[in-house]
Amino acid sequence: MKVIVSLAALAFAYASSARAGTACEDLTKLNLPHTEITEARIVAKGEFAPPPGAVGGPETGAAYRALPGFCRVLATLRPSSDSDIKIEVWLPTEGWNGRLEGVGNGAFMSSIFYWNLAEAVSQGYAAAATNTGHEGNSGEFAFGHPEKLIDWGYRAVHEMTVTAKAIITARYGNPAKHAYWNSCSTGGREGLMEAENYPNDFDGLAVGDAANPMTRNQASTLYSTLAVNKDPAGFLSPAKWLAYRKAVVNKCDATDGVKDGLLSDPMACKFDPREMECKSGDRDDCLTPPQIAALTMVLAGMKNPRTGEQLHPGWPVGANPNPTMVVGREPEQVAIDTFRAVFQNPNWDYHTMDFDKDIALSDKLGNRLMNAVDESRLKTLFGRGGKIILYHGWSDANISALLGIKYYADAVEANGGTSKTYNSIRLFMVPGMGHCGGGEGPNTFDKMKAITQWVEEGKAPDRIIAVHAGSNETVVRSRPLCPYPQVAKYLGKGSSDEAGNFSCTTPQAPKLSRVNAHG
């Protein structure tokens, strides 16, 4: 009875304190460092509509219509004389779970991903997002504006987080009990920058398909584009890439014990592109010798042409690089803009890329600015009980899955080995998943449940159940995601579309060795 009374008293005290918080509209009066709160108002249930031109998402219309009521706070942060960081903080009017969830961005996009804010609020979180300090979707904002480049690189997310915590405390009369990061791609890079540079901002981070290190990852895009265009006869059409993927799956599909169209462990697949050599003329389902040479170069990854040093991991077999953005006739613009921004040269031409000198210079200028490359700095986060869940789609066509493995391997090594890090950071490779989602495999899983249980209950994620839904949103397949290097192995009985019929086992195939991808 004493325990029950005590818990009830705590709950009453918490509720009373929350009632003593600030009215939503009065949050504009908050006096916070280099912060101007420009708007604070209640948005009633189902009444939110994103501003014109906002980036959409899956089922966003339905998600907004079901969105509970919340206090929407807009603010501008100016930590430097050239800063103009826009943030939004959404605070549930009822049922706040006591947590903050920060969500990230994509490439150089200034767009706030409103559907991510909506998802967080629908689950009871107070949520925060930022435009990273600029407008537009290119890197042009950085030319002549080094402070804005710093804001985009790391400062905007940190300032957003500090300000969001202060707004939460003012609104509810209590600080957030825990803060979490949940994002992918550039948002994944932002999460790693936070973990290394500001280990007190978040207690747990779910980091997916991270575009990190930014400069070398985008250099790899340029390297791959140049490789497939060096010899006009070596260019692979989209049909050729599909044929390559099909050939790999046909050969290695059953290595996990079941033939289901998924490669649970592409590292165990022994495939030589020469197996696809055309025997009787060029066709879409085979490769010519020049195409084999180009494909082999792309799969091997970026190397220093002068020293032969491995500068960036290649690609796992069967994971086709994006045929328009990575191995097309031209690279994606963000790859070019990255180097124009870092070099502060709007006329820089990727055709002149020196994969010796330019990589070294971009390392010097980009490390710590936009590259999370000092994994030893995770010690502070881990030392205070912070956790990181990394995940990466094996079929990611934009960012090689081997890059996700590399960051994990480097983090483990830099922090004392697996025995000292296994309760702090884990990696989950997702068979068949594309860039941050999609693909033919089970690609939907509850990252927030996994990270919050790990941080708050000490329940480490020994497996995470992922599902794949059909066209009518009915689950058609589930599969356990296993902590790397474990893979899901079919037990030989029951449906191969049910997660319960798989176990997590450690494969015998050799794993990615440590390579110098940081400079």
Spatial arrangement of strands, main beta sheet:
1-2-3-5-4-6-7-8-9
Mean pLDDT across the residues is: 92
DSSP strand content: 15-25%
Structural class: alpha/beta
Q: Tally the helices: what do you get?
A: 14
Q: Which architecture of the largest domain does the CATH hierarchy give at level 2?
A: 3-Layer(aba) Sandwich
Number of beta-strand segments: 13
Question: Mind explaining what this structure looks like?
Answer:
- It contains 14 helices and 13 strands.
- It folds into 2 domains: 283 residues, 3-Layer(aba) Sandwich (Rossmann fold); 151 residues, no CATH class.
- The strands form 3 sheets. It has a 9-stranded mixed sheet, sandwiched between helices. A two-stranded antiparallel ribbon has the order 10-11. It has a two-stranded antiparallel sheet with strand order 12-13.
- The N terminus and C terminus are likely disordered.
- Strand 4, helix 3 and strand 5 form a beta-alpha-beta unit.
- The protein is of the alpha/beta class.
Quick take:
The protein is built from 14 helices and 13 strands.
Which key features would you list for this structure?
disordered C terminus; Rossmann fold; nine-stranded mixed beta sheet; disordered N terminus; 2 domains; 33% helix; two-stranded antiparallel sheet; alpha/beta; 519 residues; 14 helices
Any chance you could write out the topology, listing elements then pairs?
Elements lengths: L1 H18 L15 E9 L16 H6 L4 E8 L7 E8 L6 E4 L11 H9 L3 E5 L15 H27 L5 E7 L1 H12 L6 E5 L5 H16 L8 H15 L36 H12 L32 H10 L14 H10 L12 H5 L3 E7 L7 H14 L3 H4 L3 E6 L16 H11 L6 E6 L5 E7 L5 E4 L11 E4 L14
Parallel strand pairs: 4-5, 4-6, 6-7, 7-8, 8-9
Antiparallel strand pairs: 1-2, 2-3, 3-5, 10-11, 12-13
